[in-house]
Amino acid sequence: MDRDSGTKGTNIYFEEAPKAGDGHYLDHFLGTSDVWIRTVEKPAPKPIKAEEVKAGDNRWMRVALPESKEYSVDAYGKFGVYEYGTKKVLLHYYARNLSVESHDAMHELGRAEQMDLDLVPHDHGGQIEFSLLWKGEPVADRMVFVRGPDGLRENVKTDADGRIELKRPSKGSLTLRSSVEFATPGSEDGEAYEAIHHNITLVMPFDSSEANNE
Q: How far apart are CA 208 and CA 171, in angstroms?
C-alpha cells in the first residue's frame, strides 16, 4: 500500500513486490476486501469501497484520502487457498498506510482494532517501537521485515512482548512486513488446506513535506 500524491489517494497492491503489477491476484480481493479510513477527528473505522485502477498492463486498487493530513487507511482481504510447494494454506492479508505527524495522532490511530493482525507503532523520541498483535495479544519470536530510506534493510524478531525497536528515519517511509501462522486444517470453497497464514504490511511516511504535498 502506498500514497498517490497525483490523485490524493492510497494505492493498494496485491503483488510479490510493493508496486503495481499485472493484477494477477487482484481478482481474489475486488469487491470482497474491507477498507477503512480513520482520522483523529473521526477515529471510529469508516468502511469505504476501493476502486479498480488500470494503467497499461498493470492493475491495482485505490481509495481516496481524507482532507486531514493525519490518517490511517486499513485494509483486509482473504485470498483463499494457496499452495506453497506441496503445502496448501489459507491466506489472509492485512495492509495499513499510517500517516501521522504528532505523538497524539500516533497514539490515537496507531492501533487498528478492527483487524485481527496488527503492527502498532509507539513513539519514543528518536526511536519507534512496534508491537505485533494477534487479536490484541502480543506475538513473540516472529520475524519483522523492515525496509526504509537509504537502502535500509533489517530483519528483526519480536521479543517476548511482541515488540521491536527501530531508529526513527528523518525522511522517507518505513515499510514493515510480518505474519502469523496456525496449523489449523480446514476447507475453503471446497478446497482443503493444512494451515492458516496471516500477513500484514504497514507503511509509515516520515517526510512531513511529502505529506503536506498530498
A: 8
pLDDT attached to residue 70: 93
Q: What torsion, rounded to 10 degrees, do the Cα atoms 22, 57, 210, 147 define?
A: 30
Please tell me the distance from the alpha carbon of residue 205 to that of residue 100, in angstroms, as a whole number: 8
Q: How far apart are CA 115 and CA 135, in angstroms?
A: 8
User: Identity (one letter) of the amino acid at 28?
Assistant: H
DSSP secondary structure of 23-89: -TTGGGTTTT-EEEEEESSS-S-EEE--EEEEETTEEEEEEEPPSSSSEEEEEEEEEEEEEETTEEE
More confident residue, 30 or 86: 86
Number of CB atoms found within 10 A of residue 18's CB = 15
Say which DSSP state 66 is in. Answer: P
C-alpha cell recorded at residue 145? 521485515
What pLDDT sits at residue 126? Answer: 82
Cell numbers standing for residue 2: 502506498
pLDDT category at 20 given cuts 50, 70, 90 is confident
- The answer to whether the pTM exceeds 0.90 is no
